[in-house]
Design goal:
This protein is an alpha+beta fold. It has a single domain, classed as OB fold (Dihydrolipoamide Acetyltransferase, E2P) (Beta Barrel). Helix content is about 35%, strand content about 30%. The strands form 2 sheets. The chain has a 5-stranded mixed β-barrel with strand order 1-2-3-6-5. It has a two-stranded antiparallel ribbon with strand order 4-8. A hairpin with a 2-residue loop joins strand 6 and strand 7. The termini are far apart.
């Protein structure tokens, strides 16, 4: 008689945890059906599920902040109604998927930073190449960098409390 492969409960528990974490991370695809602001969108998956997505590593101006509406419009221009591919990194405290987003092949994070429509989010950045794009946007005074008193969104939120 053969012994069961998953006889050990600790191994079974580990496999369950690995499977569950795979649901949080990995690739996700679909059509962008909504744009909340310059770093948040809604994706409709092939299974007809709507998923709220926060673009990882960047932070866009708040809606009541200078460039807030322009930032939202720019993300909509490159993503709304288009096919998106996400590399999901996890979930934030609001239940949104945190992901690197490509809309019709365009890297949304790189585009938004390069256009001056988002800051590199120092606290969460892992792709250090975003800093070079941000510096170029600053040098050329694109977007938020055209305002010599630009306030990062995390400071704006703190001051608004």
């Amino acid at each position: 008689m053969r012994k069961p492969i998953l006889k050990d409960k600790s191994l079974l528990t580990l496999l369950c945890l690995l499977f569950a974490s795979g649901l949080m991370a990995g690739e996700l695809t679909g059509k962008v059906v909504g744009i909340s602001d310059g770093d948040t969108l809604k994706l409709l998956t092939p299974q007809r599920q709507q998923v709220r997505v926060r673009l990882s590593q960047i932070d866009a101006p708040e809606s009541k902040q200078a460039f807030g509406n322009k930032s939202r419009q720019e993300l909509a221009r490159i993503c709304f109604g288009k096919f998106a591919s996400l590399d999901v990194e996890g979930e934030d405290r609001f239940g949104r998927k945190l992901a690197r987003v490509r809309c019709d092949g365009v890297d949304a994070q790189s585009h938004m930073v390069s256009a001056g429509m988002a800051w590199v989010y120092d606290r969460y950045v892992t792709d250090k190449s975003l800093y070079q794009l941000q510096q170029q946007a600053k040098n050329e005074k694109r977007g938020v960098w055209s305002d010599h008193e630009a306030v990062p969104p995390w400071e704006f939120r703190r001051a608004s409390r």
